[in-house]
Amino acid sequence: MRKVHRVILAGIIGFIVTSVVYAWLTGRFGPYTGGAPGTWLLVVGLALISYSLYQIRPSLLFFGWGFLGLIWTVFLLVSGSLEGVFSEFLTIILFGLPSAGLLMVAVRLLIEEGRRSNEKAS
Q1: Domain residue spans in the chain?
Q2: Which segments within 80-121 are labelled E, that is strand?
Q3: pLDDT digits over 53-68, tens only?
């Protein structure tokens, strides 16, 4: 695995951890996943799905997490579940910017894959 992929994969893992820590601190995952054990099962499941998508095609993984991250960001902003002066700013920084970055990486990988397939075809 190239160094760039390791960095991006670390970013995705950081996104998962940040989401779980947020859920644990606010108690918002508890009723839906059965508390802490359910949250960890959710994390393991997401990690396995992420690994499988990465093995199939890396761009799928980055696109999926970027899209989910943007949905999560919009949900947090619209629901107003975070309170405080800087809550919207922190939401955009913690979730929105990394998600947009993952989407940009997915597009770049798709372009590179397209170029490689065109080179092989000719």
Answers
A1: 3-121
A2: none
A3: 777 777 777 787 788 7
